[in-house]
Write a structure and sequence with these properties.
This protein has 357 residues and is α/β, with parallel strands linked by helices. Helices cover 40% and strands 19% of the residues. The chain has a 12-stranded mixed sheet with strand order 3-4-2-1-5-14-13-6-7-10-8-9, sandwiched between helices. A two-stranded antiparallel sheet has the order 11-12.
């Protein structure tokens, strides 16, 4: 019996040539998922059907629906808003293709539209392959750097940022998918201030009443007083001062090489990273655990959340795993974490609306 009070979470299948479909099956094989949310997959049902065998769950059935309100949300049955996207005769696992790139893209757009209409309460995305997606979109004159930019475009959002979370380690980025040179150019006071405010709001939405925010420097040793660069003095510190004047508990700019250790130790609730790898490497070092003896990933954990959107979007914090796709070896922990995060955020929003209505 479905929990009719639980939020409806739309799960995109990701690039079907990757690990998204099998991870979806593995995650939904955990029957307790259905007690916390009502999951519905968006994508090509034939890919999910194929993934049931690959993931080691041939007992699971796939049920095709046209709309989320037709789903039954029963454990053991995967409801799929079916989009006829894949030609099985030319499909291959682990290969970049325009067909699979377009399939992943259309699944994401459909999930966004469902959320914007209120047909689902949150969205959760599996990984897509950026090369495949942009190969498919090139004839249409479109280009997207990733999920975040798709969501921003299709929701009309101009102020947004990426947050990664692993348990109580949370990181928000000033920039993500751009060159390192461009990332340095984007470290400007208005953007740093914007991200500090988005991080503060995110913490409040997660139930943290008095968030403690740390801001990383851009340069080694946070510039060492201008010795290794002036971005901290000219751009980052002014943003911190403005945020503090607005009542936000924020500290920095702090040396990036020791900041994340402090965050793990509980000094801060959230960290502002200046660019993609500064934040991603720190989080993935603790969230991704490789078992040397077994020569396999023991854990691949972490959640990607887009802040500033009018809808909820969480995601796995890993790629498409083309090298593992179709082999049934991919670990579903990150997707389970992302689903839980989406359900928590959606339930929190509902409670908030109920209190103010």
């Amino acid at each position: 019996m479905a929990n009719t009070r639980a939020p409806i979470v739309a799960i995109t299948m990701g690039d079907p040539a990757g690990n998204g479909p099998e991870l979806t099956v593995k995650a939904l094989a955990h029957q307790d998922v259905y007690r916390r949310m009502r999951p519905v997959v968006v994508g090509d049902a034939s890919m999910i059907e194929m993934a049931c065998g690959i993931a080691g769950h041939p007992e699971m059935r796939v049920r095709r629906v046209e709309r989320p309100d037709q789903a039954r949300f029963e454990p053991g049955v995967i409801d799929v808003v079916h989009l006829d996207l894949i030609d099985a005769d030319v499909f291959e696992y682990g290969r970049v293709s325009a067909m699979c790139g377009m399939a992943a893209f259309k699944s994401v757009v459909c999930a966004i539209e469902l959320a914007m209409r209120g047909d689902v309460d949150a969205t959760c995305t599996n990984a897509l392959n950026k090369e495949a997606m942009n190969l498919a979109l090139k004839p249409e004159g479109k280009h997207f750097a990733g999920h975040t930019e798709i969501y921003a475009s299709y929701t009309g959002t101009s102020s947004y940022a990426m947050m990664l979370a692993f348990h109580d380690l949370r990181v928000v980025h000033v920039s993500t998918h751009c060159s390192l040179a461009e990332a340095c150019r984007r470290v400007k006071t208005p953007r740093v201030l914007e991200v500090i405010k988005l991080a503060n709001d995110a913490c409040h939405r997660l139930g943290i009443e008095h968030p403690r925010i740390a801001v990383a420097g851009l340069n080694p040793h946070a510039g060492e007083g201008g010795l290794f660069g002036r971005e901290e003095i000219d751009e980052i510190a002014p943003a911190i001062e403005l945020a503090a004047a607005d009542g936000i508990d924020v500290e920095g700019p702090l040396p990036p090489d020791s900041l994340f250790c402090k965050a793990l130790g509980g000094w801060y609730d959230i960290v502002i990273a200046m660019y993609h790898d500064q934040g991603h490497i720190a989080l993935k070092t603790v969230g991704f655990v490789y078992d040397r003896a077994a020569r396999a990933w023991k854990a691949v954990e972490g959640v990607n959340v887009t802040l500033g959107l009018p809808i909820i979007r969480t995601s796995v914090d890993h790629g498409t795993g083309f090298d593992q796709a179709g082999k049934g070896r991919s670990n579903e922990l990150s997707l389970l974490n992302a689903l839980d995060f989406a359900a928590r955020m959606a339930s929190g929003e509902k409670e908030g609306h109920a209190q103010t209505s």
